Amino acid sequence: MIIYGIAFGLITGVIYYIPIYMGYLYFPKKKGIVSGVVLCGYGLASLVFGLTFFALVNPNNLDPVYDDAHTNKYFMGPSLSVAKNVPGVLR
């Protein structure tokens, strides 16, 4: 977990750093607005992609089914088509 946490933090920092730095070069007196817009765009992109991905994978809005122990829900049985759509949408 430590390696994953450090690696994920470093990579995320690199991803944030480049557009923020370029924005600072173009707008040196508005650093707060630049960093806010970049971080807002990064967050909104993941929100929009998540909703779009789920809409493409599950177009019929099927519900997951409980497993045999009735503890977890999975897309299986009548909603198996959702699980089968994932590789195609990822491509």
Account of the protein in words:
A two-stranded antiparallel ribbon has the order 1-2. By secondary structure, it is mainly alpha-helical. The chain is elongated, with a radius of gyration of 20 Å. The protein has helices spanning 2-26, 31-57, 80-90, and strands spanning 65-66, 73-74. Helix content is 69%, strand content 4%. The protein starts with a helix and ends with a helix. The chain has 2 domains: 1-57, no CATH class; 60-91, no CATH class. A hairpin with a 6-residue loop joins strand 1 (65-66) and strand 2. Helix 1 (2-26) packs across helix 2 (31-57).
Quick overview:
The protein is mainly alpha-helical and 91 residues long. The chain has three helices and two strands; from the N terminus they run ααββα. It has two domains: 1-57, no CATH class; 60-91, no CATH class.
Which ranges are low-confidence, i.e. pLDDT below 50, for 5 or more consecutive residues?
Answer: none
Radius of gyration: 20 Å
Measured between the Cα atoms of the first and last residue, the distance is 29 Å
The share of residues in helices is 55-70%
What's the average pLDDT? Answer: 87
